[in-house]
Design goal:
With 123 residues, the chain is of the alpha/beta class. It has helices spanning 60-64, 88-98, 112-120, and strands at 4-6, 27-29, 49-51, 74-76, 104-105, 108-109. A six-stranded mixed beta sheet has the order 1-2-3-4-5-6, with no helix packed on it. The termini are far apart.
């Protein structure tokens, strides 16, 4: 019953092969890889913590795919190309708009102020 899987710094390009552990996996570490697409996670119904910073995610729409993870509460996604020249603070409302159940984003508690700003995001 695998609950934590650390695959950081492995030159991974695609998320795949998690079906066997999806029912029990609660924490997945994928930072510092080559991942562009956030696919292959749909079987991870108990996944609460996903660390996927320092990858090659170019589009914020990829982050929206994580809304299919019902238990996700803690997401580290900083230092991906979709941030462009925006700071973590500037990106928080856009991410929280797509994932309103997040409690922790990029290592910081999601504040009520950020949740309110997320409702105003027009991107």
């Amino acid at each position: 019953n695998l609950e934590i899987l650390s695959l950081a710094r492995n030159q991974i390009k695609r998320i795949q092969g998690l079906d066997e552990v999806g029912a029990t996996l609660k924490e997945l570490w994928l930072s510092y890889n080559q991942i562009e697409k956030l696919e292959g996670l749909q079987s991870c119904v108990k996944l609460a913590n996903l660390y996927i910073g320092h990858n090659k995610i170019k589009n914020l729409d990829e982050v929206a795919k994580l809304s299919q993870l019902p238990s996700l509460r803690d997401l580290l996604v900083a230092n991906n190309p979709f941030y462009g020249d925006k700071s973590r603070e500037d990106m928080k409302p856009s991410i929280v708009k797509r994932l309103p159940d997040l409690k922790i984003l990029d290592g910081q508690v999601v504040s009520e102020a950020v949740k309110e700003m997320a409702q105003e995001v027009q991107d």
